[in-house]
Amino acid sequence: MPRERFEQELVRLGSSTLVLGEQASTAVQQATQALLEQNVQLAERVITEDAGINRMERAILDSAADLLVLQAPVASDLRRVLGISRVASNFERIGDHARDIARGIVRLGGAASVDPQGDLGMLIDGVQAMLREGLECFSLADVDRARTVRKAEDNVRSAYAALYRGILAQILAEPTMATRGTHTLFIGHDLERISDHVANVAETIVYMVTGNTVELN
Question: First CA to last CA across the chain, in angstroms?
């Protein structure tokens, strides 16, 4: 494959991965909206549309494999191809967690989640902020911004820990809340895992640009 064609395919692959990330971010936004509004119909839509996110990831990974086969890339090119594959896989996993949040809403049957101290809203806001930053970092290949993702992840972890403690305390005080509380904890865990995948994306951006492996999470 000529060098110019290789560069064009690599740019196309990066653009497709950004679209995948935007789709995953939309899934998270819709799932959290469904949670806050107790909207089972919207949650069911998130579940249905997850298949499209999965197809996009498979297409990106197949294209990345083709690039590696058709061109013997130098080290920097290899990092870019492998990095895009890693980012795509993390975006797909974010979509999976959005789907799992939606499934939890369906299991709640439209009942309100348990949020005794208002930590769920902080958790959602923190995750969505991380997602926006992660997409921007990937779009711009911005290493400095990627390194700051850890600060946002700390806020997400603190909000999840507070939610966990608050729900357990409420379940102990009101055992009838156990089912709703447990489903809310599962949802909170999915949100916390989304932040982990955004941190993985940020780490991969640093690797793609600099060749250095860092651990942000």
Answer: 38
Q: What is the CA radius of gyration of the chain?
A: 19
The model carries a pTM of: 0.93
For the chain, list the domains and their CATH numbers.
3-210 (1.20.58.220)
Tens of pLDDT, residue by residue over 18-48, are: 999 999 999 999 999 999 999 999 999 999 9
Phi and psi dihedrals of 29, rounded to 5?
Answer: -60, -45
Mark 136-145 as b/e (b = at least 16 C-beta within 10 Å): ebbeeebbeb
Q: What is the mean pLDDT of residues 172-186?
A: 92
Picking from 119, 137, 125, the residue whose alpha carbon sits closest to that of residue 199 is: 137
